[in-house]
Amino acid sequence: MLTKDFIGLIAGASGMKKKDVEHLLSTTNAIIRENLMAGKSIQMQGLGALEVKTRKERVIVHPRTGERSVVPSKSQLVFRPVANMKEELKKI
Q: Is this structure's pTM higher than 0.90?
């Protein structure tokens, strides 16, 4: 789904103007981004949680050459759905 379609759905369901929904969505995105960059997790009721996890540095082996190399640690965005969402997704 495109952002403009998402905005249209929200505007239709809420009775808000598309401009207001667009502003609300961009503000929400900015706040979520700021908090994730600060290391905080975001809990969205009925949906799940967004958080930044740090993957540790690890050694990998190239399958053909057997050459070992180090993959540096990195931050990764992770989404953990709520339990009932997991069950609903299994039914799809």
A: no
